[in-house]
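Suppose you are handed only these lines of text.
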Amino acid sequence: MSACEIVMGIEDLRKEIFSYLRKKAKVECIICKRVCVWDKKVCNYITYKPNIQIQYGIFAGLVFGDYCIRCWGTHGPFGTYGCTIN
Ligand SMILES: [Zn+2]
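From them, the structure of the protein bound to zinc ion can be written out as follows.
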């Protein structure tokens, strides 16, 4: 039996070790809940948290939070306008 197996076999010790591990992502996309940052960055994301509520233009009514790059494209300020190249 390895040292790891012995440690993990002791329930109190195992609980103690797992209590230090992260259960929730540091940054999670508010739309699709994709993990953007766990301990390290997992995927590109945009944090939209302006100091003031923007009332006009394409940012008006946009929900504050973290968006993965995919949702920023579909749900972000440019999503509804699309990006058409003619
Ligand atoms: Zn997303």
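What can we learn from it? The chain has a mean pLDDT of 87. The beta strands are 27-28, 35-37, 45-48, 65-68.
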